[in-house]
Amino acid sequence: MTAWEQVLDELVRVRGRALVRYATLLTGDEREGEDLVQDALVRCFSQGRTLRDPGAAESYVRQAILSIFLDAYRRKARWTAVRHLLAREDDTADHGPASTARLDVQTALLTLRPRLRACVVLRFYDDLTVPEIARRLALSDGTVKRYLFDAIGQLESLLGPLPDAHTIDIQLVPTGVTR
Q1: Contact (Cβ atoms closer than 8 angstroms) between residue 128 and residue 136
Q2: Does one domain contain both 112 and 158?
Q3: In b/e form, how buried is each residue of 19-29, taking b as 16+ CB within 10 angstroms?
Q4: Per-residue model confidence as pLDDT tens digits over 105-121
Q5: Which residue from 20, 15, 28 is spatially nearest to 109, judged by alpha carbons?
Q6: Summary mean pLDDT of the chain
Q7: Are 43 and 108 part of one and the same domain?
Q8: DSSP 22-51
Q9: Residue 121 backbone class (left: φ over 0; alpha: ψ -120 to 50; beta: rest)
Q10: Which DSSP category does 124 fall into?
Q11: Contact 118, 136 (CB under 8 A)
Q12: Contact (CB, 8 A) for 118 and 26
């Protein structure tokens, strides 16, 4: 077994479930999360990279998961914008109940736009700081703070007050704004 195969084996064996949970929070579906992790593993380990450290490999895979998720959302949004030009709408669309009696966090996360959802997952699931999130998403610190502020507001409207959500970082709430 080569060195990169050992790293891949150890990463999947030791951190595989954590990677799937991470991807599931982004996608909202465990099967899609598993597919997303698989795609990220293929992307990271099939391009001839010599990843010898499982910690570094996990970081590469997490970044690939995030990139693939955001790219897929953009692709889907573009397709949705032009789909009507190629196909007709189904007459049998199911318009079930618009809301449920009880919302859980995962369902509430699905209501957020992908960038906001990514910021929330990186902040509360990965426990990253605002500068770390900004670096990972190639955004400014202020943009990340704004995304977190908007996301928390949307989540609170669905779930009620979120304890400690506004003490994430100093100045998460823009100056002059009261909650």
Answers
A1: yes
A2: yes
A3: bbebbbbbbee
A4: 788 888 999 999 999 99
A5: 28
A6: 78
A7: no
A8: HHHHHHS-HHHHHHHHHHHHHHHHSS----
A9: alpha
A10: I
A11: no
A12: yes
Pair 148, 168: CB distance under 8 Å: yes
pLDDT of residue 81: 66
Residue 89 corresponds to which amino acid?
E
Instruction: State pLDDT tens for residues 115-174.
Output: 999 999 999 888 899 999 999 999 999 999 999 999 999 988 887 777 666 555 433 444
CB 112 within 8 A of CB 120: yes
Pairwise CA distance, residues 138 & 114, whole Å: 15
Q: For residue 22, give its domain range.
A: 1-82
Q: Answer yes or no: do 145 and 177 share one domain.
A: yes
Contact 33, 20 (CB under 8 A): yes
